[in-house]
Amino acid sequence: MTIAIYPGSFDPFTNGHLDIVKQGAEVFEKIIVAIAYNEKKQGFLSKDTRIKLISECVKEFKNVEVQAFDGLTVDFAKKCGASVLLRGLRNTVDFEYEVQMAQINMALYSDIKTVFLITKPENSCISSSGVREILHNNGDITNFVPLPVKKFLESNK
């Protein structure tokens, strides 16, 4: 079974993230949406809130699960038996950063492969930090996040 890890902070989970999950679910037998967190840093949303919201957003996919981890992504991948890191690309800036990360991960764990999927054009402008900024300024996040995330964020302003 090919297991892919889709790592990220997902703080918050966006339509772009969901797009990559949908595409990856068609390619891989199992995807683990791996929420990276650091106990020493305070995120926008708690680890438990992110797990709950993302789980709700991906519940239609029988081959997708959500877990959180602290530490190196490649160590988490080894622990899960994953052979693939799934990464989303919006633009060439993402590509340059992601290639560098893929090379670092390969240096740390030579058996890991990184697979890049490109988001749909309508998701190419979306970032978690952008969503946080829009929310902070009382803007409409409807087109940027899945409905469960929108409902949660707007009810917890």
Question: Can you offer a commentary on this structure?
Answer:
The radius of gyration is 15 Å and the shape is globular. By secondary structure, the chain is α/β, with parallel strands linked by helices. Helix 2 (about 45-55) packs antiparallel against helix 6 (about 145-155). The longest helix is centred in the middle third of the chain and has 17 residues, at about 90-110. About 30% of the residues are buried. It has helices at about 15-25, 45-55, 75-80, 90-110, 130-135, 145-155; strands at about 5-10, 30-35, 65-70, 85-90, 115-120. Strands 3-2-1-4-5 form a five-stranded parallel sheet, with helices on both faces. The chain contains six helices and five strands. The chain has one domain (about 5-155): 3-Layer(aba) Sandwich (Rossmann fold).
Q: Largest beta sheet, briefly?
A: 5 strands, parallel
What is the count of helical runs?
A: 6
Give, in order, the helices and strands: EHEHEHEHEHH
Return Rg in Å.
Answer: 15 Å
Strand content: 15-25%
Instruction: Assign the structural class, choosing from mainly alpha, mainly beta, alpha/beta, alpha+beta, or little secondary structure.
Output: alpha/beta
Mean pLDDT: 95
Tally the beta strands. Answer: 5
User: Ends: how far apart?
Assistant: 42 Å
CATH superfamily: HUPs
CATH architectural label? 3-Layer(aba) Sandwich
Spatial strand arrangement across the major sheet: 3-2-1-4-5
The backbone outline, from C-alpha atoms, is globular
CATH class: Alpha Beta
Helix content: 40-55%
**Number of self-contained structural domains:** 1
Show unreliable segments: none
Question: Could you please say which CATH topology applies here?
Answer: Rossmann fold
